[in-house]
């Protein structure tokens, strides 16, 4: 019962203040006078005023507060929407120049202006060949390995291009420059300072 009474009182408070903000003082004064004259004696208003001038003062104060508050909320909302576009601390930047790659013949180079006929590159691996005609990747010659005896499939017995890691996995031997644990992992057969040489 108390909950219903509190909810009804709260809704009456909102209705009264809605009328105070959006209706004239004369309309509010008549509304209050009529509500106070209920024949059944029920209380329908949360506000009472001794005079018409007191109602006008309170109404002016409420309107000032509501306009100020709504203006402040609107300004904060606009600031949150507009601020990222005005004060962007992490704005992205891009180069204002272009490269047109014509050849891969020259060595490594760096340039900070528009270039045409560009022939340099940033870097390359030793297995990559960069020439006038283009770029090619040099791979080791493939090998054929015949494994046809039981002994070939047990332990560490593998063909020339493979090794086993002790867990039964068959792996390709590593090229020069790759990290290794033992020489048997390297195609060259030599592992120096954890690198295939």
Account of the protein in words:
With 197 residues, the protein is an alpha+beta fold. The protein has 3 domains: 2-86, no CATH class; 99-106 and 114-137, no CATH class; 150-196, no CATH class. Helices cover 35% and strands 13% of the residues. The chain is elongated. The model has no long low-confidence stretch (mean pLDDT 76).
Write the layout of secondary structure elements.
Layout: H1 2-22, H2 25-36, H3 52-86, E1 99-101, E2 115-118, E3 128-131, E4 134-137, E5 162-164, E6 170-172, E7 191-192, E8 195-196
Parallel strand pairs: 1-2
Antiparallel strand pairs: 3-4, 5-6, 7-8
Helix pairs in contact: 1-3, 2-3
Low-confidence stretches: none
What's the mean pLDDT score? 76
Approximate helicity band: 25-40%
Count of helical segments? 3
Radius of gyration: 43 Å
- Proportion of residues in β-strands: 5-15%
Largest sheet: 2 strands, parallel
- Spatially, the strands of the biggest sheet line up as 1-2
Structural class, judged by helices and strands? Answer: alpha+beta
**Count of β-strands:** 8
Distance between the termini: 89 Å
Summed up, the domain count is 3
Q: What form results from the Cα inertia axes?
A: elongated
Order of helices and strands: HHHEEEEEEEE
């Amino acid at each position: 019962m108390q909950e219903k009474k509190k909810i009804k009182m709260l809704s009456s408070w909102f209705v009264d203040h809605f009328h105070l903000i959006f209706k004239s003082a004369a309309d509010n004064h008549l509304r209050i006078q009529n509500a106070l004259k209920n024949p059944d004696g029920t209380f329908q208003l949360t506000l009472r005023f001794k005079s018409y001038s007191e109602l006008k003062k309170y109404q002016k104060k409420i309107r000032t507060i509501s306009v100020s508050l709504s203006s402040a909320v609107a300004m904060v909302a606009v600031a949150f929407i507009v601020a990222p576009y005005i004060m962007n601390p992490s704005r992205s930047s891009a180069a204002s120049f272009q490269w047109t790659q014509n050849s891969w013949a020259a060595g490594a180079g760096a340039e900070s202006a528009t270039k045409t006929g560009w022939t340099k590159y940033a870097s390359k691996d030793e297995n990559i060949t960069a020439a006038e005609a283009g770029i090619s990747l040099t791979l080791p010659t493939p090998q054929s390995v015949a494994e046809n005896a039981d002994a070939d499939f047990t332990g560490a017995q593998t063909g020339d291009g493979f090794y086993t890691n002790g867990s039964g996995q068959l792996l390709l031997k590593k090229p020069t420059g790759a990290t290794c644990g033992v020489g048997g992992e390297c195609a060259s057969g030599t592992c120096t300072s954890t690198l295939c040489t």
